[in-house]
Predict the structure.
Amino acid sequence: MIHSQKNQLEYLSLKPDGILQDLVESIWMMRYHADETAESIIVPDGKLDIALLAVENGNFEMFISGISTGPVIKPPFPKSTMMVISFHPVAAEYIFKQSFADLKNNRQKLLSGYWGFCKEDLIDFERFYEKACHSIELQFTKETDPRKLRLFELIYSLKGAVTVKKLTQKTGWSSRQMNRYFNHWLGVSLKSYLNIIRFSNSMKQLKSGNFYPELNYGDQSHFIREVKKFSGVKPTILYKNENDRFIQLSMMPED
């Protein structure tokens, strides 16, 4: 379990094992203890999310979101709790059995009771984790295609710093087939997805103050452009992360 607390922000995260690890990246909780919070920014990470959010004033909502291709501004939620299931893209086909193309850069509200979830699930993170795993297992009724799992294994292990041609050679899946898959299920091309994963993996070096491009970027200018595209700011601003504005950077564990 990853457990981090910074100022008035608490973060917990667990990764599932067994068959779920190919489908779920992590299940996590974020809790704000402060009476006042500032606007924050969520940057693209290549995941599909189901989120439960409760604010101290009693408001509760559930929503599902698709792939983001740019920064998302999160409004302030003082004294709030959010629990999230972050899915790998293959979950679109094998868990949700629906395309997320229309949810690119968007989210859809869910009715309370979706997969049996309710506001009371936000009380205890470990119980939420167990319930989430059980709910996902109930949806998992179709055997996964090893070729698709291999594709994502390569993308993540190589941190997005790989060409479409190389993936074609290693999977035996044509670029046309792969792009058709990504556009249908996620609404983005394979190349766009690789760029998101490469940026997401660059966050760790930016947190440490290393602004030299390490993951097969063309040059320094290319790296800066990509960081600005996905975060909305220059690498130096991302590194400073004033007021813990970039949530993922704030909650990233220290080496």
The beta strands are 2-6, 9-14, 24-32, 40-42, 48-55, 60-65, 72-74, 80-87, 107-110. The radius of gyration is 18 Å. Residues 190-207 form the longest helix (18 residues). The CA atoms of residues 241 and 249 lie 8 Å apart.
